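Consortium newsletter contribution from the modelling node. Members have asked for a concrete example of what our holo predictions look like. Here is one, prepared for the uridine-5'-diphosphate complex that several groups have been discussing at recent meetings.
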Amino acid sequence: MKVLVTGGAGYVGSHVVKLLGEAGYEVLVYDNLSTGHEWAVLYGKLVVGDLEDKKKLRRVFEEFRPEAVMHFAAYIVVPESVREPLKYYKNNVANTLNLLEVMEEFEVKRFIFSSSAAVYGIPEKVPVSEDAPLKPINPYGETKAVVENILRDLSEAKDFRYVSLRYFNVAGADPEGRIGFAYPKPTHLMIRALKTAKGEIDRLEIYGTDYPTPDGTCIRDYIHVMDIANAHILALEYLFDGGKSEVFNCGYGKGYSVREVIEAVKKVTGKDFTVVETERRPGDPPVLVADSTKIREKLGWEPKYDDLEFIVRTAWDWERRR
Ligand code: UDP
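And here is the predicted structure:
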């Protein structure tokens, strides 16, 4: 089976490519390397290209003839999306339309989309389930919700089936140690905490301690990148088996506060570091925790690494060798 993976040189994409390769899929990665890396593509062929470049994309479809597409290529930084919304709509929405149009031209009818828990905004009920209303509170989440709506309409109109995976907070690295998070300017909590432990960052800031949570800091559902990667393989098999279009949460259903993550990082690394409390960061919902019943039941997804300290350890093993 041939799978085209956009953004396959990036963080989540490269872990999925590894599992696809191990499972015997034929992979082609299409990535502009804006945040991804050639070394991260462990299987298949890498074509360096942008989704804006429809001509190049057509040539890739013409030659490779994929049977399914997994779409990871997107910008992912919430605060940046607040400052630069057009950049986000262009890449995450307009470029996705290019991809869907080329898929239609070449009659590729199966699609797996990297969505986000950011589509829920501030959920009324936590853990949040897939049928909760989509009310994003930042442009990043808005771009993911717009694409989900496009996918829903497309699958109703045409012979096109998709699975949208709403990621909660992806973290950790492949326990075998060959790939991991490698963005130039990390904004995510766990990575910043690890870089502070490593001495690359002077002090770690906690963005807001006055949230309506037990310790005043935001709560997130941290999920190991390999468990997320495995969900993609199950979703692909589901579509190849004739499964209908679906949306699934990808999280463990357990939340940890910013302070708890920092404690776990200090414990695993054995390093103490300076932590300062600062203002809230715009666009942050207080609590995001997944109800993951649906993916467990429908895809038979069983997480293997549901353990915050293990997640931190794999990320630390990766980070300190970089
Ligand atoms: N956060 C923080 N300090 C940092 C980075 C993040 O306090 O240096 C907080 C952030 O405000 C949020 C949580 O950690 O409440 C998770 O943020 P992250 O950027 O890791 O993921 P997001 O949930 O925004 O996708």
